[in-house]
Design a protein that fits this description.
This protein has 111 residues and is an alpha+beta fold. The chain has two helices and six strands. It has one domain: predicted glycosyltransferase like domains (Thrombin, subunit H). Strands 1-2-3-6-5-4 form a six-stranded antiparallel beta barrel.
Length: 111
């Protein structure tokens, strides 16, 4: 199942601060929905992270202190000069969908 199939109701993104690894690049997720994410590279290079629209990579996200999920993502927004970029989840399992959904609900309840 792809994220786009579940996205038809236009899920809103929730602002978060979740540490993650995109391949070997340390990033911080800045917003998340059940289909997509926004992030910023944690180590900024003068040229920004080397990511292109259409790149597919593995995203390892620390959803909770004891829960790490591994997701396949495709980059849909190229990095800006400050290292902000965005993407969507690919082939999201039902379990990971529910984990992300629960994380969003938890963040919304905290704030």
């Amino acid at each position: 199942m792809t994220g786009r199939g579940k996205e038809r109701r236009r899920d809103r993104r929730c602002p978060v601060e979740l540490p993650a690894l995109l391949g070997e690049l340390a990033v911080m997720l800045t917003d998340i929905s059940v289909v997509s994410f926004g992030a910023v590279a944690r180590i900024r290079k003068a040229s920004g992270p080397n990511l292109s629209v259409g790149d597919i990579d593995s995203l390892e996200v620390q959803l909770t202190p004891d829960r790490v999920v591994h997701l396949t993502v495709v980059i849909e927004r190229a990095p800006d000069p400050e290292g902000h970029f965005g993407g969507r989840f690919v082939n999201l399992s039902d379990e990971n969908y529910r984990l992300i959904e629960a994380t969003i609900v938890g963040w919304k309840n905290q704030n």
